[in-house]
Amino acid sequence: MLALFGYAAGDINPAIPPALIHGGSDHFVLALNSRGALAAMAYDFKEGQAFMRREGLVTILLAFAETPRLFHTRNPFASGGVYEDPATGASTAAFAGYLRDLGWPHGGSIDIVQGEDMGVRSRLHADIPPEPGSSIKVSGKARLMEAG
Length: 148
Description:
single chain; alpha+beta; Diaminopimelate Epimerase, Chain A, domain 1; eight-stranded mixed beta sheet; 4 helices
């Protein structure tokens, strides 16, 4: 996974260990320790597509924690034929549940800025109930998609 994006072990935030997360489908989370590393995300699309399909991943959630409640994310979606998704509710829900399970100090909710580095800024919000296994409510604001 690290090699796909050109990251090294030192780029990972140890407070949020890499993990397989699930929100209706499988996602993988890599939490990075710098906003610069997140902004520089790049990968070979065909290699990423083969990897994600082989491993059964819908997206890979790359995240940076600006604060305990504010994250910046990117979501490579090569498995679905898209280099990057600007607003991914399923991976946001899975990530919020993972943070709850980790005991992360989320205070009951998180906000996510996604798509900014690809020029399509979205803002997602996840409400996180304290009960393990309970539903995560995701809402937000994404770009308007017009019929072509």
